[in-house]
Amino acid sequence: MNFSLLEFFATWFFSGKSPKAPGTCGSLATLPFVYVLAYFYGIYAVVLFAVLIGVVGIPVADKYAKKLNIKDPGQIVIDEVAGQSIALIFAGTNLYLFAAGFALFRLFDISKPWLVGWADTKLNGGLGIMLDDVFAGIFAGIIVFLIRAYVF
User: Fold this and answer.
1) 33: how many CB neighbours lie within 10 A of its CB?
2) pTM to 2 decimal places
């Protein structure tokens, strides 16, 4: 097997290579990273991680999609990593908020409401691959913030 750093990151440690629900697997594979960052370094580390993955993810997703010659391959899950991280910015280390952020992000990513759907259908390349998940993460993150503010 030929190891490719591009594939390693595009598929987020190969979690996107799962034959079933690669996006969900990519989101699940994000959770421990965000939790450790939140636990040891706080909210700013999670924000920095989300921004870095979002920025680096654009060319990574673009190059890997071109390599596969597919517009938006399901195995590319670095976009889920960015969106899931955004959804969890205000979760801290609260496992209930983590579960809510995970479920809400998956809901918005799969159902593609409003801006999520627009980005998914109207934008191409790495930006299009990444931006719909970023919007889904923002929507989920707003709800997590509200739950944290009014429930916890």
Assistant:
1) 18
2) 0.96
